[in-house]
């Protein structure tokens, strides 16, 4: 009997020790959060959120500044385009407004091509050029208005192939348009320019309704001066 009581007491003591040990293990595995740790975690999250918001604000400011620069650039380009529109150009006598430029046809002045350029330079201009059919048509309209009596006077324009044979360029350095409706034809079939190395300057030929022809630069003709305002 005494042995039985002793055994029960030992088992009970072991159970209490086991429960105590398990409790201690749980306390070791899941220790309670200290209040200071909780506060530090909250501060860290708030700091990260503030940093992210600052980055977003900086990016938004940079984007806004870029959009303002693009807008201002477009406004400047638009303003320059408005200045080039017909009607916005102011030409001073003896020049006449034709499209977006000022023209001067000196019918009574006969010059070589080089001398014609010097004449135009004296009026702060250069020999005329055109890059499309509409501008060419407007120039022809102006010429016919000035030359009402259709005097047999040919007209210099600012094109030549003196630098490179058969590479026709304007005095601005731009390539001249080729073919119809700009260039004429000799004898009804030989399309200009066709006169070879000896004919290096461009001329509006009156007898052929001011189509463009290549002639010798020493030829004498009237200068058609042009300037942009």
Tell me about this structure.
The chain is an alpha+beta fold and 229 residues long. Helix content is 44%, strand content 17%. It has four helices and ten strands; from the N terminus they run ααββαβαβββββββ. The strands form two sheets. Strands 1, 2, 3, 4, 5, 8, 9 and 10 form an eight-stranded mixed β-sheet that branches. A two-stranded antiparallel sheet has the order 6-7. Strand 6 and strand 7 form a beta hairpin. It is elongated and about 105 Å long. The protein starts with a helix and ends with a strand. Mean pLDDT is 79; it is low at 2-23 and 77-84.
List the helices and strands and how they pair.
Layout: H1 2-29, H2 35-84, E1 96-98, E2 101-105, H3 113-121, E3 126-127, H4 133-146, E4 155-160, E5 169-170, E6 185-186, E7 190-191, E8 201-205, E9 211-215, E10 222-227
Parallel strand pairs: 4-10
Antiparallel strand pairs: 1-2, 2-10, 3-10, 4-5, 4-8, 6-7, 8-9
């Amino acid at each position: 009997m005494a042995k039985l009581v002793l055994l029960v007491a030992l088992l009970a003591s072991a159970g209490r020790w086991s429960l105590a040990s398990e409790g201690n293990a749980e306390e070791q595995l899941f220790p309670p959060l200290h209040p200071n740790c909780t506060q530090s975690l909250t501060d860290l999250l708030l700091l990260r959120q503030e940093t992210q918001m600052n980055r977003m604000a900086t990016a938004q400011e940079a984007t806004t500044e870029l959009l303002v620069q693009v807008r201002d650039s477009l406004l400047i380009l638009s303003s320059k385009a408005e200045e080039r529109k017909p009607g916005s150009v102011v030409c001073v006598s003896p020049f006449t407004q034709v499209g977006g430029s000022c023209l001067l046809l000196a019918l009574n002045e006969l010059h070589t091509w080089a001398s014609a350029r010097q004449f135009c330079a004296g009026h702060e201009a250069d020999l005329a050029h055109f890059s499309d059919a509409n501008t060419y048509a407007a120039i022809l309209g102006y010429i016919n208005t000035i030359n009402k009596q259709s005097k047999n006077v040919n007209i210099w324009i600012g094109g030549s192939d003196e630098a490179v044979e058969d590479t026709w360029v304007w005095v601005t350095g731009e390539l001249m348009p080729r073919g119809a409706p700009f260039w004429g034809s000799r004898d009804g079939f030989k399309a200009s320019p066709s006169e070879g190395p000896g004919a290096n300057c461009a001329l509006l030929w009156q007898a052929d309704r001011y189509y463009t022809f290549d002639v010798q630069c020493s030829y004498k003709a009237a200068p058609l001066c042009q300037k942009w305002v």
